[in-house]
Amino acid sequence: MNEFWSGVRRGLPVLVSVAPFGILYGAIAADHGLSIAELTLMSATVFAGASQLVGIDLFGHNIQPWVIILSIFAVNFRHVLYSAALARHVDVLRPWQRAVNFFFMTDPHYAEIERRSLSGEPLTFAWVMGLGLCLYLPWVALSTAGGVLGAFIGDPKAIGLDVLLPVYFLGLVMGFRTRANWLPVVAASAVGSMVGIKLIGSPWHVMAGAAAGILMAVVLPLPENTVEPRQVEGEGQR
How far is Cα 231 from Cα 221, in angstroms, rounded to an integer? Predict the structure, then answer.
């Protein structure tokens, strides 16, 4: 039980940052014609703020469903990379526990698991559930509240709500600045994203930035002291 509450405590600062975004999503969804039940169901099943905003924006236009699906995939493409990066950390969990973990996968969820692994603390399912539920349940509730109270929010830019999410994401990226090759990978991703938004537009620039960062990481040499954990374990067993 202590592990569960430890996960909850790690999620609370994140919740403060994403709470306005959840309310904003609910308000925008209601303004685009979604009922309270529909916008709540979308938050409960999709659980991805940026993708939900892209989806509701496209729903109001005469666009083919496959275009909407591909657009949401482009925004969520980074989650494929997150899952691959976390594979070595979550292999201590059972298959169904890994599936639950990946349902809760968000940007802060990924970042917190990486930080826990870097600190040397073991990853437990109770901790994952504490972190995941701390973000998931309030997100659904705040989306509903935003849909109900959206008319009272007005223009989100007027009160600065539009800058909260970019600032939060910047904080996530800066949290990994001590890692080897961090700067060139981030720089390549930024340039790729800027070129993408000029040439192919949003939301495809997200995929372009991710691809540029991956390519840079592939061509850069690893530090000399980088050793795979599994290799170390294997040597110890001999």
Answer: 19
- CB-based contact 148:23 (threshold 8 Å): no
Determine the pLDDT at residue 231.
Answer: 39
Q: Where are the domains of the chain?
A: 2-160, 177-221
CA 145 – CA 112 distance, rounded (Å) = 27
List of residues 6+ apart from 201 with CB closer than 8 A:
none
| Cβ neighbours around 170 below 10 Å, total | 10
pLDDT at position 237, please? 36
CA distances from residue 14 to 8, 88, 102, 118 in whole angstroms, order as listed? 10, 24, 18, 19
Burial of 100-121, coded b for 16+ CB within 10 Å and e otherwise, reads ebeebbbbbbbbbbbebbeeee
Write down the pTM of the prediction. Answer: 0.70
The DSSP result for 15-61, as a single string, is: HHHHHHHHHHHHHHHHHTT--HHHHHHHHHHT--HHHHHHHHHHHTS
Residue type, 180: A
State the CB neighbour count (10 A cutoff) for residue 169.
Answer: 15
Tokens representing 104 are 């809760």
**CB neighbours (10 Å) of residue 88?**
12
Which residue positions in the chain have pLDDT lower than 70? 60-61, 151, 153-165, 168, 172, 202-203, 223-238
